[in-house]
Amino acid sequence: MSRSRLATFLLSMSLLAGCGSAAVRGNDAHVAGPDPIVAQGGSIDRAQLRSALAARRQQSLDRFLAYREGRVYPINTFDAGLQHVWRDDAGHLCAAATLISADWGYEVAAAIGAENNFIRLADVHEGPLWDWVLTSGLTHQEVVAIQEPMMREPDVTTADPLEIARLYGIYTSVERQVRTMWDENLDAAVDALMARPDLARAMLDGHVAAPGRFADAVARTEAAARVRAPGA
Protein backbone atom coordinates (compact mmCIF):
# COMPACT_ATOMS: atom_id res chain seq x y z
CA MET A 1 0.00 0.00 0.00
CA SER A 2 1.37 3.39 -0.93
CA ARG A 3 2.13 5.91 1.76
CA SER A 4 -0.72 8.19 0.60
CA ARG A 5 -3.23 5.36 0.58
CA LEU A 6 -2.11 4.29 4.05
CA ALA A 7 -2.61 7.80 5.37
CA THR A 8 -6.08 7.94 3.85
CA PHE A 9 -6.96 4.56 5.37
CA LEU A 10 -5.78 5.60 8.84
CA LEU A 11 -7.71 8.88 8.65
CA SER A 12 -10.88 7.01 7.69
CA MET A 13 -10.50 4.62 10.62
CA SER A 14 -9.92 7.55 12.96
CA LEU A 15 -13.12 9.23 11.82
CA LEU A 16 -15.11 6.02 12.24
CA ALA A 17 -13.73 5.56 15.73
CA GLY A 18 -14.64 9.14 16.57
CA CYS A 19 -18.21 8.68 15.37
CA GLY A 20 -18.54 5.50 17.35
CA SER A 21 -17.27 7.06 20.55
CA ALA A 22 -19.58 10.03 20.03
CA ALA A 23 -22.52 7.67 19.67
CA VAL A 24 -21.54 5.94 22.90
CA ARG A 25 -21.25 9.25 24.71
CA GLY A 26 -24.68 10.22 23.43
CA ASN A 27 -26.19 6.96 24.66
CA ASP A 28 -24.45 7.34 27.99
CA ALA A 29 -25.88 10.84 28.36
CA HIS A 30 -29.34 9.50 27.66
CA VAL A 31 -28.97 6.75 30.24
CA ALA A 32 -27.64 9.18 32.84
CA GLY A 33 -30.77 11.28 32.45
CA PRO A 34 -31.40 14.99 31.94
CA ASP A 35 -30.24 17.87 34.09
CA PRO A 36 -30.23 17.42 37.91
CA ILE A 37 -33.49 19.36 38.42
CA VAL A 38 -35.38 16.98 36.17
CA ALA A 39 -33.64 13.94 37.59
CA GLN A 40 -34.68 14.86 41.12
CA GLY A 41 -38.37 14.71 40.44
CA GLY A 42 -39.31 15.20 36.81
CA SER A 43 -39.71 18.37 34.80
CA ILE A 44 -42.24 20.96 35.97
CA ASP A 45 -45.12 21.46 33.58
CA ARG A 46 -46.09 25.12 33.79
CA ALA A 47 -49.67 24.51 32.68
CA GLN A 48 -50.17 21.87 35.39
CA LEU A 49 -48.56 24.09 38.00
CA ARG A 50 -50.76 27.02 36.96
CA SER A 51 -53.87 24.85 37.30
CA ALA A 52 -52.81 23.66 40.75
CA LEU A 53 -51.94 27.17 41.88
CA ALA A 54 -55.25 28.52 40.53
CA ALA A 55 -57.12 26.07 42.77
CA ARG A 56 -54.93 27.09 45.67
CA ARG A 57 -55.55 30.77 44.91
CA GLN A 58 -59.30 30.20 45.02
CA GLN A 59 -58.94 28.36 48.33
CA SER A 60 -56.97 31.26 49.81
CA LEU A 61 -59.53 33.76 48.59
CA ASP A 62 -62.43 31.73 50.01
CA ARG A 63 -60.71 31.56 53.40
CA PHE A 64 -60.03 35.28 53.32
CA LEU A 65 -63.67 36.04 52.51
CA ALA A 66 -64.85 33.79 55.36
CA TYR A 67 -62.54 35.72 57.68
CA ARG A 68 -63.88 39.04 56.41
CA GLU A 69 -67.50 37.98 56.83
CA GLY A 70 -66.83 36.78 60.38
CA ARG A 71 -66.05 40.39 61.36
CA VAL A 72 -63.88 39.23 64.27
CA TYR A 73 -60.57 41.03 63.86
CA PRO A 74 -57.69 41.64 66.30
CA ILE A 75 -57.98 44.62 68.61
CA ASN A 76 -54.98 46.95 68.66
CA THR A 77 -54.26 47.43 72.35
CA PHE A 78 -50.61 48.26 71.77
CA ASP A 79 -49.80 51.52 69.99
CA ALA A 80 -51.65 54.61 68.94
CA GLY A 81 -52.44 54.89 65.26
CA LEU A 82 -52.10 51.97 62.86
CA GLN A 83 -50.27 48.85 63.99
CA HIS A 84 -49.92 45.38 62.53
CA VAL A 85 -51.27 42.98 65.13
CA TRP A 86 -50.68 39.31 64.34
CA ARG A 87 -52.60 38.05 67.39
CA ASP A 88 -54.38 40.12 70.03
CA ASP A 89 -54.76 39.45 73.75
CA ALA A 90 -58.00 37.55 73.14
CA GLY A 91 -56.30 35.25 70.65
CA HIS A 92 -57.84 36.72 67.50
CA LEU A 93 -55.60 36.44 64.44
CA CYS A 94 -55.19 38.95 61.64
CA ALA A 95 -56.31 38.03 58.12
CA ALA A 96 -52.91 36.77 56.94
CA ALA A 97 -52.35 34.81 60.14
CA THR A 98 -55.78 33.24 59.73
CA LEU A 99 -54.92 32.01 56.23
CA ILE A 100 -51.68 30.56 57.53
CA SER A 101 -53.41 28.90 60.48
CA ALA A 102 -55.72 27.12 58.04
CA ASP A 103 -52.65 25.36 56.63
CA TRP A 104 -50.31 25.09 59.61
CA GLY A 105 -52.72 25.11 62.56
CA TYR A 106 -53.57 27.73 65.13
CA GLU A 107 -50.70 26.86 67.47
CA VAL A 108 -48.12 27.37 64.74
CA ALA A 109 -49.73 30.67 63.76
CA ALA A 110 -49.59 31.72 67.41
CA ALA A 111 -45.90 30.76 67.54
CA ILE A 112 -45.24 33.18 64.69
CA GLY A 113 -46.84 35.94 66.76
CA ALA A 114 -44.84 34.89 69.80
CA GLU A 115 -41.66 35.47 67.81
CA ASN A 116 -42.85 38.85 66.48
CA ASN A 117 -46.43 39.94 67.09
CA PHE A 118 -45.97 43.02 64.92
CA ILE A 119 -44.44 41.25 61.95
CA ARG A 120 -44.97 42.88 58.56
CA LEU A 121 -45.15 40.38 55.72
CA ALA A 122 -44.02 43.19 53.43
CA ASP A 123 -40.59 42.76 55.04
CA VAL A 124 -40.51 38.96 54.64
CA HIS A 125 -38.50 37.64 51.68
CA GLU A 126 -37.16 34.31 52.92
CA GLY A 127 -37.85 31.48 55.34
CA PRO A 128 -41.04 29.48 56.02
CA LEU A 129 -43.37 32.47 55.75
CA TRP A 130 -41.95 33.42 52.38
CA ASP A 131 -42.33 29.82 51.21
CA TRP A 132 -45.94 29.88 52.36
CA VAL A 133 -46.57 33.04 50.33
CA LEU A 134 -45.14 31.32 47.25
CA THR A 135 -47.55 28.40 47.69
CA SER A 136 -50.59 30.48 48.67
CA GLY A 137 -51.66 31.18 45.09
CA LEU A 138 -51.49 34.89 45.89
CA THR A 139 -48.72 37.30 45.06
CA HIS A 140 -46.60 38.83 47.77
CA GLN A 141 -48.28 42.18 47.17
CA GLU A 142 -51.73 40.62 47.59
CA VAL A 143 -50.77 38.97 50.86
CA VAL A 144 -49.38 42.29 52.08
CA ALA A 145 -52.67 43.98 51.16
CA ILE A 146 -54.60 41.34 53.10
CA GLN A 147 -52.48 42.04 56.18
CA GLU A 148 -54.05 45.40 56.94
CA PRO A 149 -52.83 47.10 60.16
CA MET A 150 -55.33 47.85 62.91
CA MET A 151 -56.24 51.24 64.38
CA ARG A 152 -55.86 51.73 68.12
CA GLU A 153 -59.23 51.14 69.77
CA PRO A 154 -60.70 53.88 72.02
CA ASP A 155 -61.94 51.15 74.35
CA VAL A 156 -59.43 48.31 74.44
CA THR A 157 -61.90 45.88 75.99
CA THR A 158 -64.31 45.75 73.07
CA ALA A 159 -64.05 46.00 69.30
CA ASP A 160 -64.95 49.39 67.88
CA PRO A 161 -67.76 49.03 65.29
CA LEU A 162 -66.18 51.82 63.25
CA GLU A 163 -62.87 49.96 63.12
CA ILE A 164 -64.63 46.75 62.11
CA ALA A 165 -66.42 48.64 59.34
CA ARG A 166 -63.13 50.22 58.20
CA LEU A 167 -61.38 46.86 57.99
CA TYR A 168 -64.37 45.25 56.30
CA GLY A 169 -64.33 47.96 53.64
CA ILE A 170 -60.61 47.51 53.04
CA TYR A 171 -60.98 43.73 52.80
CA THR A 172 -63.75 44.24 50.26
CA SER A 173 -61.43 46.42 48.18
CA VAL A 174 -58.73 43.77 48.41
CA GLU A 175 -61.16 41.14 47.17
CA ARG A 176 -62.04 43.35 44.21
CA GLN A 177 -58.36 43.79 43.35
CA VAL A 178 -57.68 40.06 43.61
CA ARG A 179 -60.56 39.24 41.28
CA THR A 180 -59.80 42.05 38.82
CA MET A 181 -56.15 41.03 38.45
CA TRP A 182 -56.81 37.30 38.69
CA ASP A 183 -55.07 36.06 35.55
CA GLU A 184 -52.19 38.53 35.62
CA ASN A 185 -51.37 37.91 39.27
CA LEU A 186 -51.85 34.16 38.94
CA ASP A 187 -49.22 34.20 36.21
CA ALA A 188 -46.95 36.27 38.45
CA ALA A 189 -47.47 33.77 41.28
CA VAL A 190 -46.63 30.90 38.93
CA ASP A 191 -43.44 32.68 37.83
CA ALA A 192 -42.37 33.13 41.46
CA LEU A 193 -43.10 29.50 42.30
CA MET A 194 -41.33 28.18 39.19
CA ALA A 195 -38.17 29.78 40.58
CA ARG A 196 -38.43 27.33 43.49
CA PRO A 197 -38.62 23.86 41.91
CA ASP A 198 -38.80 22.16 45.32
CA LEU A 199 -41.94 24.07 46.28
CA ALA A 200 -43.38 23.76 42.78
CA ARG A 201 -43.12 19.98 42.88
CA ALA A 202 -44.67 19.93 46.34
CA MET A 203 -47.58 21.99 45.01
CA LEU A 204 -48.06 19.53 42.15
CA ASP A 205 -48.16 16.77 44.78
CA GLY A 206 -50.82 18.68 46.70
CA HIS A 207 -48.62 20.10 49.46
CA VAL A 208 -47.96 23.62 50.67
CA ALA A 209 -44.78 24.93 52.26
CA ALA A 210 -43.90 23.50 55.68
CA PRO A 211 -43.85 25.70 58.81
CA GLY A 212 -40.24 24.85 59.61
CA ARG A 213 -38.91 26.50 62.76
CA PHE A 214 -42.38 27.62 63.84
CA ALA A 215 -43.53 24.01 64.12
CA ASP A 216 -40.30 23.28 66.00
CA ALA A 217 -41.17 26.07 68.44
CA VAL A 218 -44.58 24.51 69.09
CA ALA A 219 -42.96 21.11 69.63
CA ARG A 220 -40.50 22.59 72.14
CA THR A 221 -43.31 24.35 74.00
CA GLU A 222 -45.36 21.17 74.18
CA ALA A 223 -42.34 19.18 75.35
CA ALA A 224 -41.63 21.74 78.08
CA ALA A 225 -45.27 21.58 79.20
CA ARG A 226 -45.02 17.79 79.53
CA VAL A 227 -41.89 18.15 81.65
CA ARG A 228 -43.63 20.61 83.97
CA ALA A 229 -46.66 18.35 84.27
CA PRO A 230 -45.37 14.75 83.85
CA GLY A 231 -48.59 13.27 85.16
CA ALA A 232 -50.82 15.16 82.72
Structural commentary:
With about 230 residues, the protein is mainly alpha-helical. The chain has one domain (about 50-230). About 65% of the residues lie in helices and about 0% in strands. The chain contains eleven helices and two strands, in the order αααβααααβαααα. The protein has helices at about 5-30, 35-40, 45-70, 95-105, 105-115, 125-135, 140-145, 160-180, 180-195, 195-205, 215-230, and strands spanning about 80-85, 150. A two-stranded antiparallel sheet has the order 1-2. Helix 3 packs across helix 9 (about 180-195), helix 3 (about 45-70) crosses helix 10 (about 195-205) and helix 4 (about 95-105) packs across helix 5 (about 105-115). The longest helix has 30 residues, at about 5-30. It is flat. The chain starts with a helix and ends with a helix. The model is unreliable at about 1-40 (pLDDT under 50).
Distance linking N and C termini: 98 Å
Count all strands and give the number: 2
Largest sheet at a glance?
Answer: 2 strands, antiparallel
Give the strand order of the largest sheet, numbering strands 1, 2, ... along the chain: 1-2
Low-confidence blocks of residues: 1-40
Q: Mean of the pLDDT scores?
A: 84
Radius of gyration over C-alpha positions, nearest whole angstrom? 28 Å
Query: What is the molecular shape?
Result: flat
Element order, helices and strands? HHHEHHHHEHHHH
Strand-residue proportion: under 5%
Number of helical regions: 11
**Number of separate structural domains:** 1
Q: Given the helix and strand composition, which structural class is it?
A: mainly alpha
Helix content, binned percent: 55-70%
